[in-house]
Amino acid sequence: MTQPWRIQGGFIMSCNCDVWCPCVLSLGRADPTYDRCLSWWGIHCEKGNYGDIVLDGLTTGLMVESPGPLSEGGWAFGMYLDEKGTPEAQEALAKIFSGQGGGPTSWFSIMIADFLGSRVVPITWETLEDGWYMGIPKIIDGSVSVVMGADGVTPVVAKNTKYWVGTDVVVAKANKSRIRDWGRNWDLSGQSADYTEIDWTGP
Fold first, then answer.
1. In angstroms, what CA-CA distances link 138 with 16, 178, 183?
2. Domains of the chain (ranges plus CATH)?
3. Cβ neighbours around 130 below 10 Å, total
4. Whole-model pTM over 0.85
């Protein structure tokens, strides 16, 4: 049975679109800059639970490849589960991020055409002075920094959006962004990224 769940924390997305990715305002209906969407996503749970299972401090990584607009589906999809979690927590996160747990990620279940698999791996998540970092040894090395606005000190933020992740989205750019796994070898450095504070509940 699906349990009530909640994840509070942060979300990073790094993709191959030019800055800035059109998905946020088009709600995934716009064409990617270069025909196909190549991306990795990081979700850090500062505080959370799945029923009685504690998810605090765990990070989940996703690799997403879409043949066209994200909302049209056909995704190839791989999942990285934090080795710090208990087997029960890993199973709960796998259910949430495959769309089986309901809530904001439920739409994944109809978007995924090719589930590449899941791996239990060490995942590093860091908040930097000007952005965020997520790393998985030999798989993901990703550092994104905020794009500053006209005053040079305040990040550009899209506010009050209908984006599925959250309403206020920080515009960012990948300083370095490499992902190598499941027959893919992508360098997304210099391309689009974004960050959103999340508070998701399900089912």
1. 20, 9, 13
2. 5-202 (2.40.400)
3. 13
4. yes
